[in-house]
Every structure is written in C-alpha cells, then in structure tokens.
Amino acid sequence: MKAFTLIEIIITILIVAIFIAATALILQQAVTGLVFSSDTVKALNLARLEMSKINNLSYTDVTLVDGYNITIPGYEGSGYDLNRSVSHVADTNEAIKKVVVSVYLAGTIDILSKLVTYAADIDFGPGSGGNTPGTEAGQANSLSVSGGTVSGKLFQNVTLENTSADVITITAVAVSFAGQPGIKIKQVDMNGTTRWSGTKLSGVLLSLNPSFSLSAYTTYSNTTHFTFSKNLTSVTTIVFTMSDDSTKAYMP
Description:
Layout: H1 6-54, E1 69-72, E2 80-88, E3 96-105, E4 111-120, E5 143-151, E6 154-162, E7 168-179, E8 185-190, E9 193-200, E10 205-214, E11 218-228, E12 232-242, E13 247-250
Antiparallel strand pairs: 1-2, 2-3, 3-4, 5-6, 6-11, 7-10, 7-12, 8-9, 8-11, 12-13
C-alpha cells in the first residue's frame, strides 16, 4: 500500500478548500438573491397599493398637483419608504400629469420598485345626479376642512364646516397615515358620535354608519377624531366622500 506524500496531502487540502470556498460563495449569493427578491416583491406590492389609491383620486386632488413630491417613511407600517412625485407632461396644455411612485428600503436611496401612471383632465359630462363622481364638485364644494393634530394614537380636533345653504352629508372617509409598524385605523368619531369602528389599513375607504349630515352654514369645531391601533406619526391625506359621490381631499 502506497502512502501519501506531504505534497499530495497539501494539494488535496488546497483542492478541498477551493471547493468549499466556491460552494460558500454560491450559497451566499443565493441567499442574497432570495433576500433581494423578497424585498422587491414586497416593494412592488406597496407600489401597487399606492397606485390603487392614486387611481381613485380626482385630477384636481391636492396630492396630484404639479410639483407634489413627498416621501412617506415606513409606508403602511412596513420597513420601506415610499415616494410619490407629480409633474405635468410637456406639450399637453397641463391636461396630463405624470405620477411616479418609488419604493425604497427604509433609510436607503436604492429603488426597489418604481411604477408610473398618468392622470388626465377629461370631462365626460355630468352623471345622472348632475355631478361628476369622484371630483370636488357638488356637496364637496361646500365642505371646508381645517385643523387636526397628532397625539399618540389619535388624530384629533379636525374642524368641518358647511359653507352652503343646503344640508350636506358625509357618507365615507379614507385616511392615509403612517406610524409604528402594523398600525391600523380603529375608529372614526364625528360630532360626538362613533361613525365607524374596526381595523383597516391606510387609505381604505371607510363607510360611515351613521353618516354625518352638516346643517347649512354650520361649523363643527374640533369635533372629528380618528383613533389608531398604535402611535401615529402623521396623517397625509383625508378624503371625504359625500352622499352625491363627490369627494373632498384634505391634506393636514
């Protein structure tokens, strides 16, 4: 039986070491790829969620004005930051806006997902009720909103005013907010009455029951409050839906 020489043993060790190092590198790259893929999928889902909100906004919504550019840290309680930017498309007489949504890993500038949509100012004529649904017309024109402060799990002291000679009615609200991971909206109170309760994510339309009717030329000072499951960082937009389907967007 022939024994191995020292040189043969050293060569064998080197070959094994090279094989192990190569295998470890491949495994490391595979794990890194899986993590990046997971981040990309999550970021894409968040971008799609934001796009669904944008697609329900009117052309004149305050969050779709030319030059609008805002970054929401920890979007929807996730570990990702989201940016929405709006700009007019050249040579369209300001009739088309480009909306870009980008999602980043929190605290970085590396884009994980980027989606683009366009908003057009097109008048299809009034609906059966005489107003164009989804726009700030009709009853929404008479609703004035002001105030609002963050206090722990509350966004409180929002003032509502009916500036018209007719009664107007709020039937639903959608609140876009940010806060601690996993935060959800739990309750909506208007004028001393709980109008909605449950657990919903940011931006979801909440149907009020009972709805809130505002008397003609009446101001309801500091009477609207929103309660959340965890500490709140900010409320970016509140969209009020009226009984005639017109909407009023308020950005505190």
